[in-house]
Specification:
single chain; 125 residues; alpha/beta; Transcription Regulator spoIIAA; five-stranded mixed beta sheet; globular
């Protein structure tokens, strides 16, 4: 399940994920990014996982791969900061392996550091 986090600064797009993200839910992650890009905004993104978050189903994963090309690589210069708040070791490992691909700044926070993550992601890079 995807839930938009609204108590963040205006320059931050933020979501909380729990359970398994499905293909139909995946658009909730991406549509606000597309809208911000169409307005010429820099993307600062906050992603928070709940303890029961278990990843994405195959449909959502396939959409994520496609989005990486259409938004991630095509708009590399439009990404500012990306904060991830998680207790999932598999997410931390994936970020340590593939994080260098991200064009902006990427930082992982512990679940108890949500306020620090909000402050960091909203600050100018």
């Amino acid at each position: 399940m995807i839930e938009r986090i609204t108590d963040v600064p205006a320059n931050v797009i933020a979501f909380r994920a729990s359970g398994k993200v499905t293909g139909p839910e995946y658009h909730q992650f991406v549509d606000p990014v597309r809208e911000a890009l169409s307005r010429g905004e820099t993307i600062n993104y906050l992603f928070v996982t709940e303890p029961d978050f278990s990843g994405m189903d195959m449909s959502a994963l396939w959409q994520d791969v496609q989005t990486a090309g259409s938004i991630g690589f095509r708009h590399r210069g439009d990404w500012g900061r990306f904060a991830v708040v998680t207790d999932k070791d598999w997410i931390r490992h994936a970020i340590s392996v593939f994080g260098w691909i991200f064009a902006g700044e990427l930082k992982v926070f512990e679940p108890g550091e949500l306020d620090q993550a909000k402050t960091w992601v909203a600050a100018s890079a």
